[in-house]
Amino acid sequence: MLSRAADNIFWLSRNIERADALARILDATHRLTALPQASAGTTNEWQSAVATAGCVTAFQAAYDEANERTVTEFLAFSPANPASIRNCLETARSNARAVRTALTGEMWDVINGAWHRLKNFDGRNMTREEFARFLAFVKEASLAFDGSAFRTMLRNDAYWFSRLGFLIERADATARILDVKYHVLLPAKERVGGPLDYFQWTSILRSVSARTSYHWVYRESVKPWLVADLLILNRQMPRSLASCYENMSRYLDDLAQFYGRQGNSQRLARAMLTRLDNSTMEEIFQSGLHEFIGSFIAENNRIGGAIAEQYLV
Fold first, then answer.
1. If DSSP states are collapsed to H, E and C, what string results for 134-195?
2. What is the mean pLDDT of residues 7-14?
3. Which range, of 36-40, 66-70, 78-82, averages the lowest pLDDT?
4. CA dihedral over 216, 218, 220, 224, signed as positive or negative
5. Do 231 and 225 form a contact (C-beta atoms < 8 A)?
6. How far apart are CA 61 and CA 201, in angstroms?
7. Which residue pairs from 36-39 have beta carbons closer than 8 angstroms and sit at least 24 positions apart in sequence?
């Protein structure tokens, strides 16, 4: 496969997954702000949404205050934000057009249909109910695209590049959600394990569709260290960092066998998987969850760059 085609397939999946992650972040933020003041307290959910999306600098250059209107506009609809949901879906459609013959008909129908439906949503003066329908549309489009890729693509290099883009983006989103919750969302005066903390961790589980899975695995009330365990180390959880890297290592090995040589991306992915396998939540919390996640995000970006240098340039 030509590197240009591989690059488009890789970024097609990254952009679809990024749009889905932003929709989930915004949905969780709206749920928190809808709580009664007695339960929700005075918090900084809108700032945390921007921080989770990794857009703080760009947001502060465009707006003076983080509130429902400005954050919703910037993360969902702003043409000036390259990582807004609208721009992610439009860029994904451009990626798909560039490699139309490498996609199955079902995959093209999903992304092209989502692009056309996107035109029906006007971010100006949108009610909360209309915005909720928009977020549901984005999540449904992502699920449909992922399902069509899984069920219809040949297991060849096009499929593996698609999954690698998806997994790199998913791992980044999961790590950022955890980091922002632990260091930004809970006000200094609130105690860990208190009512506000419980609602916020539950909201995090909802945002990654893991609330039911959490109770299946741990069978007890929501606790921060168990949520972190589920989303970092538990390979059974599809959005966990360990699960992402288990699959990423496998797909990179498939590519290495297909092309007849290994490279830096395979070595880095295996090293990250080994690091996660050898970690425990006690060690992670003792050394600092923020420091662990910061290191993970930096290494995840490095591995994404290694994949690009090895295959996509």
1. HHHHHHHHHHHHHHHHHHHCCCCHHHHHHHHHHHHHHHHHHHHHHHHHHHHHCCCCCCCCCH
2. 97
3. 36-40
4. negative
5. no
6. 30
7. 39/195, 39/196, 39/199
* Number of neighbouring beta carbons within 10 Å of residue 195: 14
Which pTM was predicted? 0.90
**CA–CA gap between residue 109 and residue 81 (Å, rounded):** 26
Which of helix, strand or coil describes residue 313?
coil
pLDDT reading at 42 higher than 60? no
Token pair 């992502």: residue: 142
Closest CA to 175 of 16, 31, 13, 52: 52
Q: Are 268 and 299 in contact (CB under 8 A)?
A: yes
Query: Residue 199 has what DSSP assignment?
Result: H
CA distances from 302 to 192, 224, 252, 305 (A): 33, 28, 15, 5
Rg of the Cα atoms in the chain: 19
pLDDT band at 126 (very low <50, low <70, confident <90, very high): confident
Under 8 Å between Cβ of 184 and 32: no
Q: Give residue 281's region: left, alpha or beta (phi > 0; psi -120 to 50).
A: alpha
The answer to whether the beta carbons of residues 68 and 47 sit under 8 Å apart is no
Q: Dihedral (C-alpha) 32, 37, 40, 44: value to the nearest 10 degrees?
A: 80
Phi-psi region of 34 (alpha: psi -120 to 50; beta: other; left: phi over 0): alpha
Q: Is 10 exposed, middle or buried (0-12, 13-18, 19+ CB in 10 A)?
A: buried
SS3 4: helix
